[in-house]
Predict the 3D structure of the following.
Amino acid sequence: VQAATDDGAPTLGSAGERAALQRIFPRLPAAEHALLGPGDDAAIVAAPDGRVVISTDLLVHGPDFRRAWSSPYDLGWKAAATNLADIAAMGAVPTALVVALAAPASTPLADLEALADGLREGCAALAPGVGVVGGDLSASPTLTVAVTVFGDLEEREAVLRSGGRPGDVLAIAGSLGRAAAGLALLFERAVDEHGEPDARRMPALRSKHAALVEAQLAPRPAIAAGRLAALAGATAMLDVSDGLLLDAGRIAEASGVRIDLDAGALAAEAAALAEEAPTLADRALALVLGGGEDHGLLAAFPPGAVPHGYRVLGRLVDGAGVTVGGRDSGAVVPGWDSFEAWDGRTG
Ligand SMILES: [Mg+2]
């Protein structure tokens, strides 16, 4: 059994999993759709539509986040945000989360409480009414947060990636490149002399670039925009997790179309990002095109049907792949090569 921390505060190891859960439960958000919440062998959630939309997402220390950069609160928030975005990207509304957490025995209970606070406030801000209906807690050397999310289609058809048609307009709700700009700042200004994440540099970075660092560590996807897109007649949709070019390419491939991005719209996105992060101005367009993790909703709409809150980025035409102003995307983005080299460092 692990001792308490040096200052005597209880840890997961010293308190035990059962006591830790008792501390966490009251802080978790309650789910409006829960007919039976945590405390029994399983939860029961209402499924008004009769169909259940399900997705899961795993955050593992190392590849997915660094404790030196992400606070436990950030981690809880991000776990909620990324999962909620996948339900929104189907045109559905999220209803409930199940959270499985593995943490080192030395983890202070206060950190687990902060993680629960992040989950609660992330749900409250992004998808009010969504709550945690169950989960599990275990000790493990590697901090891991596994969330499964449930959603409801409200008697609409789901918006798949495959429904886009030539003539549709491509549009985005949410930011492009801001999370990647935050990550670039972390790699440049919150590492030690060996290039390893360094928590001691975080307070200065957070005070100077709060919005961009938060875009990476605790993103705010436009969850409600998923339902809006479905109601407006969106023909295809996904959330941008791996970058605009890559994810637009996924819609193009699934829908059997070419997506032609508008150079002027991209320039406007890049200019807005450059204004927010002047030191990254030379890479702004590459960050807009290649930066993931903002989880903005990228959707195709019939002409004239783009709803409020979406910015037009281009259109769907006959063909395959993704172009910018009709030209090969790789040829028109200055700094693209260096961006790809840099992005490799994120692991
Ligand atoms: Mg997704």
User: Anything to note?
Assistant: The chain has 13 helices and 13 strands.
